[in-house]
Each structure stands twice: as structure tokens, then as C-alpha cells.
Amino acid sequence: MNTTIAVALVLCVAGIVLLSFAADAFVEGAARLATIMNVSPIVIGAVIIGFGTSAPEMLVSAVAAARGDVDLGLGNVIGSNIANLSLVLGSAALIVPIAVAKEVLKREAIMATTAAIVFAAAVYRGIEPWEGAVLLILLIAAIYWVVRSGNVPPIDEFVEEGKEPKLGVESIRTLIGLVGTVGGAWILVRGATDLATEFGFDKGFVGVTLVAIGTSLPELVTTVAAARQGSTDLIVGNLLGSNLFNSLAVGAVIGFFGSDGVGSFLGSGESAPLLDITFMLIVCIGAFIAMWSREIFTRIEGLLLLTVFVAFIAMAYASEADASSAAAAAIAAIVPG
């Protein structure tokens, strides 16, 4: 194996592991700090924990955009949204049927699906800074709606009853978690871009597959664990909440930091990015329709969702292979012998 490829793979794995542990530490520390400061549990659940579930995607996409790799950042958002509603939800449904609460249908399902459509529309024409600002305003409005509803993720797992968190300890935990998450994001992006270069893949393809799966691993692990324990009440709501933050918060970050490169992502004449966005919309809208019509995901539907994810990876690879073959043919035509 090429040494550069081996190093890139190690960087990807190390970045994913560091992201997972550091993001957990950041959310735990931030939730406890907010408790010390007498912040409402509703706000902690809606804002801090909600933000924390998408911290890996947000920071990876921000780092990628800041490095000029906007296509990788966009691919990460698109792939993560697809993975949450196919790979993660499908894996959980294979273990135990997943019911969808009516409150989730009326709130998170509508907001997450709308956010995905708005994000896709913005990406299709290229996210400008002002559109990033619009996405941020929509995110604030969504958070306000969730806070007003009073139905948010519980904070019990972060703040134990009877134990008073200490300001110094939680400040250090939060800082280390934040630094570790940023560091993990940088390492993962560096490894992913090196892999793309070595294999001749488009960075968007690496973002929508390898990076997206890596940043979705925390959701996969926690969701499968919850399904195994029979704690399925919050699974769909949490995944939809993650997609909501991905589409609006991460989309806003990309708009602020990477607007110059977004147009070339879809304006280069390549069909792969458009296929990825279309597939994301099909999965998000399809899941929304399934939730409203069935209100439960059985094992058969879980297997179907996993099949959808495999089909997406196969489609992304086929599109990338076609693009690579076309590029090679063009180079051969220009440079004889």
C-alpha cells in the first residue's frame, strides 16, 4: 500500500474517533455549564444538545470550507442527511420496530423536511453569504419553535440528579471537547482530501461517502444502543433534529466561509452533485411520507432503508467512476501517447 494512502487512512480513522469522543465531552460539559448558570432545561435540550449532535458535521464542513474544499463540506451534509434516515434509522428498525410519535410528525418531521428542501434549493444555485444568513435565521426560528413547544431532548444523561457540577471541571471539559472536536474535524478533512488526491476521486464524492459516514457514526452508535435497550421514543426525533441542524446550521456555515467555491461545485457540468442532492430529497421526503402514512418502521422497512443506503453508495461510486473515466479520456485526447 502506498505510504501516503496509509497515512491518509490513519488520519481519517483518528479524526473520526477524536470527533466522536470530543463531541460527547463538549456537549456534556456545555450542558452542565448551562445548568450551573441556571439556564432553562428546555433551552439546554433544544440548543446545546441539539447543536452537539451536529457538531461533527458542522465543524468538518466549516474546516473543509475554510480550506477551500467546499465540495467536501457540502458532500458531508448531503451524505449525513441521507445516512441518518437510511443507515442509522434502518439499523435501529432491524433491531426493534421504531414508532413515530404524533408530536414528532407535527414538529420535527415538518421542520427537517422543509429544511432539507430549502438547503437543496440554496445549494443548487450556490450558497451566497446572504443565503447563509437566511439559513441561520430559519435555524433560530426552528429552535424558538422547539423551545416554545417544551418537548426537547432530556438532559438527565448529562446532568445527574443529586450531583452538583463544578464550574472549573466543566469549563475544562467543555474547552477540551471543543478543541478536540475542531482538531478531529481538521484531521478527518486532511485525511479525506489526501485520499481523494491519491485515488483521483472528487472531494465531493469522498465527502458524501467516507466523511459523511464518519460524522454519522455517533448517531449510529447511540441510536443502535437505544434500540437494543428498547428506548425508542426519541430515536426518530433525534435523527430528524440532527438533519434539521445539518441543513440549516451547517448550510449557513458553508455559506459564510465557502461561498466562492460553491458555484463550481454544481456549475462544472458534472452530474454527480445534482444526483446526490436529488437522492437526499427523495430520502427525506420519502421518509416523511412513510412516517405520516405508517407511524412505525418495522424490520422489513428497516431492511429497505439499509438497501436504500447501499444503493446510494453504489450510485455515488458509479457516478464518480464515470466522471473519472471521462476525465481520463479527455486527458488522453489532449496529451497523445
How would you describe this protein?
This protein is mainly α. The chain has one domain: A middle domain of Talin 1. 83% of the residues lie in helices and 1% in strands. It is built from 11 helices and 2 strands. The protein has a two-stranded antiparallel sheet. Helix 7 (167-199) packs across helix 8 (203-228). The radius of gyration is 20 Å and the shape is globular.
CATH fold title: A middle domain of Talin 1
What is the N-to-C order of secondary-structure elements (H for helix, E for strand)?
Answer: HHHHEHHHHHHEH
Show unreliable segments: 260-271, 326-337
CA(first)-CA(last) distance? 28 Å
Number of strands: 2
Strand line-up in the sheet with most strands: 1-2
In percent, how much strand structure appears in the residues?
A: under 5%
Just give the CATH class. Answer: Mainly Alpha
Determine the CATH superfamily. Answer: NCX, central ion-binding region
Shape: globular
Radius of gyration: 20 Å
Number of domains: 1
How many helices does DSSP assign? Answer: 11
In round numbers, the mean pLDDT is: 79
Helix/strand/pairing class, anyone? Answer: mainly alpha
List keywords for this structure.
single chain; mainly alpha; 11 helices; globular
Topology at a glance:
Blueprint: H1 3-36, H2 41-53, H3 55-66, H4 70-95, E1 98-99, H5 102-125, H6 129-149, H7 167-199, H8 203-228, H9 235-267, H10 272-294, E2 296-297, H11 299-334
Helix pairs in contact: 1-2, 1-7, 1-8, 3-4, 3-7, 3-9, 4-8, 4-9, 4-10, 4-11, 5-6, 5-9, 5-10, 6-9, 7-8, 10-11
Question: TL;DR?
Answer:
The protein has helices at residues 3-36, 41-53, 55-66, 70-95, 102-125, 129-149, 167-199, 203-228, 235-267, 272-294, 299-334; strands at residues 98-99, 296-297.
